[in-house]
């Protein structure tokens, strides 16, 4: 059965895609509601239509656009979901109103009439709601109610004379029960409404996605192993301190939660190069030792992919993923290359990557260090690689025991908060007001969840490497990393994985939504952890992002493979508890890690959902670029694997300043003061590292004048809020 799936620029459409594909046995045709092809499509080209959820309201042409053509016909069976359900009602003359209580990410109990879509589905099943608007009863004569939530809000309807059905809830959500049965019922109804439909066989097959043998590009990976305990901090300080550019992906930075491997390297190898990207200009700037910089007019993904392909090599049997390749970051403003707006210009590169041809990989479990050297497959290349391996083995053998210096004390809590607040880019009152503005957008149906952020900006009077050595001690995190790229240095203690793509094609994301401080006693700590896990607001935040990540991964993963092995688990770190989920899937054949990044960037935990419309709201609320913060950092390996973190709990050094971003997800249950305090909590550890790095005194920091003037509320934001408010009242 050939289904047309109309995407109303939502962030859950590809969850519906996978559900429809698994039921029908073939992929649906996906067209956005403003795609010109939608108007040219003949009703005979497809067998039925599913109209997706989306932001906005059905009475506004932008929000349903070409979907309305399929609501005004009686040939094709139609299923409308959420906004599609409201559109079905609106086109038939029903009213659209603000729901008695908006529900975003909340499970609900559904009762129904037991017919059509609900045939064989038990009464009182659980479904997830994402809506601020609804279709109120009584309905016009052409419509019939079919399902209701426990609060009496209409959850389902059917057209009396057309084969059209709608559901207000989301059958594709991870927590909705019986979603597959509902779509199977729609398939059965479609077959009955159009007897000429030919039921096709299943065309969705799971393909073994083993990596193809690397083409011979004239390169070879040389390796050696050092046996013994190696301190990555000492190695970085003694081996890379003089390098112009260097990196340290710090698997030891999280203590007991640390990763197994750390990766260290620099730009001194013969194949090393550094590239940076300006998204507005569409220009990649490439720098290699001893050569003038080159500017290329192409997108960063094309350049990175070619760099990996040009250096592809046979893969030895190693216990880790990174076998030389790119190390660096994608900044938040790169969204402009992926369908987002170019609302702000970052003062730092929108992407920056170093090709690492010589890497020290420290295995913290086995107490060994693997040395990797990628070289041209020539006699001189072999000799040069052997020389580097021998010299590095000798260096590691010569290391003596190393002890980190003691940390300076952190100011008293009241001083720490005062220092932080003094250097915030937005006043406390403005941040709280922006939370309220977000909630206005949520009530209007423009978004389900908005990730609002701000930053502190201070003088960078300590070296970025010194800062990072302190940061990894005061805030150990599993995705800690340090990049020293010259024009921008990044010191990160991120707890959140954005994406991991294995060489075997398995894709994994680990979104975090929900943060609570540690308790002063074991009893208090346990109570705080349990409260976080059970808090309805926090669980709704996490669920929304899990469904969003399922959607994003669903763009590039094989049908039926996207699943959630861990939903809302609590993880404890040195300073906070966090609510974490895991989403996993199998990459489609012919795609690679950069395709996954393009499908998923920016990370949904830093935007909210629906992503496209929510990023527009963020652009209007936040008066400046986020830069590196909210982006992704890690490696892209020559063997096809990748591992990237979300850039949070991170200090960015550039032009003599250090900038630290923080924020949180705003939902309708958010308290403005609570959101402000959560933002300060997330700043606390990076700010403690700033103080403890030894370059500052409280009095000096408090007496200094912030260089950046406080940024007040945006006129653009006021205008949008006023317009949306008028539309809601008019509806």
UniProtKB/TrEMBL annotation:
<dbReference type="GO" id="GO:0005737">
    <property type="term" value="C:cytoplasm"/>
</dbReference>
<dbReference type="InterPro" id="IPR006805">
    <property type="entry name" value="Anth_synth_I_N"/>
</dbReference>
<dbReference type="InterPro" id="IPR029062">
    <property type="entry name" value="Class_I_gatase-like"/>
</dbReference>
<dbReference type="Pfam" id="PF00425">
    <property type="entry name" value="Chorismate_bind"/>
</dbReference>
<dbReference type="Pfam" id="PF00117">
    <property type="entry name" value="GATase"/>
</dbReference>
<dbReference type="InterPro" id="IPR017926">
    <property type="entry name" value="GATASE"/>
</dbReference>
<comment type="similarity">
    <text>In the C-terminal section; belongs to the anthranilate synthase component I family.</text>
</comment>
<dbReference type="GO" id="GO:0008153">
    <property type="term" value="P:4-aminobenzoate biosynthetic process"/>
</dbReference>
<feature type="domain" description="Glutamine amidotransferase">
    <location>
        <begin position="4"/>
        <end position="186"/>
    </location>
</feature>
<dbReference type="InterPro" id="IPR005801">
    <property type="entry name" value="ADC_synthase"/>
</dbReference>
<dbReference type="Pfam" id="PF04715">
    <property type="entry name" value="Anth_synt_I_N"/>
</dbReference>
<dbReference type="InterPro" id="IPR005802">
    <property type="entry name" value="ADC_synth_comp_1"/>
</dbReference>
<keyword id="KW-0032">Aminotransferase</keyword>
<dbReference type="GO" id="GO:0009396">
    <property type="term" value="P:folic acid-containing compound biosynthetic process"/>
</dbReference>
<dbReference type="GO" id="GO:0046820">
    <property type="term" value="F:4-amino-4-deoxychorismate synthase activity"/>
</dbReference>
<keyword id="KW-0808">Transferase</keyword>
<dbReference type="GO" id="GO:0000162">
    <property type="term" value="P:L-tryptophan biosynthetic process"/>
</dbReference>
<dbReference type="InterPro" id="IPR006221">
    <property type="entry name" value="TrpG/PapA_dom"/>
</dbReference>
<dbReference type="InterPro" id="IPR015890">
    <property type="entry name" value="Chorismate_C"/>
</dbReference>
<dbReference type="InterPro" id="IPR019999">
    <property type="entry name" value="Anth_synth_I-like"/>
</dbReference>
<feature type="domain" description="Anthranilate synthase component I N-terminal">
    <location>
        <begin position="230"/>
        <end position="370"/>
    </location>
</feature>
<keyword id="KW-0315">Glutamine amidotransferase</keyword>
<protein>
    <recommendedName>
        <fullName>aminodeoxychorismate synthase</fullName>
        <ecNumber>2.6.1.85</ecNumber>
    </recommendedName>
</protein>
<feature type="domain" description="Chorismate-utilising enzyme C-terminal">
    <location>
        <begin position="429"/>
        <end position="682"/>
    </location>
</feature>
